[in-house]
Amino acid sequence: MALDDNCCGCMQLETGGYIIGWLFIVSCVLGILGALGNIASPTGCEGNDCTIPIAGSAVSLILTIIVLIIAIFLIKGMNSRDAKKVFPMYIVLIIEIVFIALGIIGGFLGGVHWAGLIPLLIGLLIVAYCFIIIRAIYRKFQNESHPAGVGA
Prior knowledge:
Elements (H helix, E strand, L loop, with lengths): L5 E2 L3 E2 H28 L10 H30 L2 H27 L8 H28 L7
Antiparallel strand pairs: 1-2
Helix pairs in contact: 1-2, 1-4, 2-3, 3-4
């Protein structure tokens, strides 16, 4: 699927990559602050045992930091037009699509009313579109670094 160097039909493909990168950076910073807040004053504790909420927040913190680093790599890859720096976000989006799809399937199997799955379906569409943009950027940068017929 070619996007003809356009994202959303009105802006450069690279601009879409920057927007995705910065949205991930902002959401990761907010996620880190939330995880740190949950570690500092955990909720959902039964009695004095806060091990599970703190462990869950710690795992969330670590994963969010990893995605933050990947989002920074995406921005750096956009600046240097380096497909290798864009590729990790490509993988993150694939993982997100898989987890959202599993959530939707689990919701259907669990008997959740279809209206309760609308946020997941909208999220899936947004992440899938982001995936299409990042994939197009990755392939464009890859083609720029290895033009057709060179080294083949």
